[in-house]
Amino acid sequence: METWMRFLSTDDRIVFGKVEDGNLHEHLSLEHPVPTGAVLPVSALKALAPCAPRKVVALWNNFHALAAKLEKPVPAHPLFLIKPAESVIGAGEPILRPAHYAGKIAYEGELGIVIGKRCRDVSVAEAATSIFGYTIVNDVTAAELLNENPHFPQWCRAKGFDTFCCLGPAIATDFDWRSARVVTTLDGVERQNYPLSDMVFTPAEQVSMISQDMTLEPGDVIACGTSLGVGSIKEGGSVSIAIDGIGTLTNQLVTAGLAARQPASAAASAG
């Protein structure tokens, strides 16, 4: 298994590459993972979200256990919404409460699929080769906005605020998702612990079926949906989502205006 990360260098360059033994072995880009020959110590870099998606496709009702609890039928096609690029932050960056919203803010620990090459109308077999690797997602939601208007559920608004899509800390390739679990803790207390093998649609199926609806570009992310244990975050609360083989993604909820949003996060664990 290989670990890939994205950083801000000391000369304000965004660098991407493979992390080994505390060093970043720089590559041109996710789309063109060709080594540049540069080797940079991770300790001198600031971690960013591991990719810069044009869009994040976020699934709903993609786990059998949650569908059973909600008494919802298992879908025949992935049910999804789009989170904008501006919602993406990396590990260690603050989740900012929207200034005009005082309601509940929910976390959702999820696996993220990172697209490695453009795909449109691909088969399941082709989709598997279009996946660069996997990361961790916290799909954040302003829960009370979702059904604020009884005539139109506001999925994109409720989930699309700046900082409402936490990604990281790394991308893992050759990752065996079938044997992995998502473990989410809120202020150190375990809230989610579910197997990825319970997914309705496999990652390759998700990529294939979504590619029938839209073109997926390198760096785009598909958030695979969540399972049991979703809850709300109080001000100052810290959410950590761990998947063995990828790492731990940690972010804290703060009130907008109390923390200046930074372009790069503090270094985060990966492994």
UniProtKB/TrEMBL annotation:
Keywords: Metal-binding. InterPro entries: Fumarylacetoacetase-like_C, Fumarylacetoacetase_C_sf. The keyword Metal-binding applies. Gene3D superfamilies: Fumarylacetoacetase-like, C-terminal domain (3.90.850.10). Residues 55-253 form the Fumarylacetoacetase-like C-terminal domain. The keyword Metal-binding applies. GO terms for molecular function: acetylpyruvate hydrolase activity; metal ion binding. Pfam families: FAA_hydrolase. This is Fumarylacetoacetase-like C-terminal domain-containing protein. It comes from Paraburkholderia humisilvae. The lineage of its organism: Bacteria, Pseudomonadati, Pseudomonadota, Betaproteobacteria, Burkholderiales.
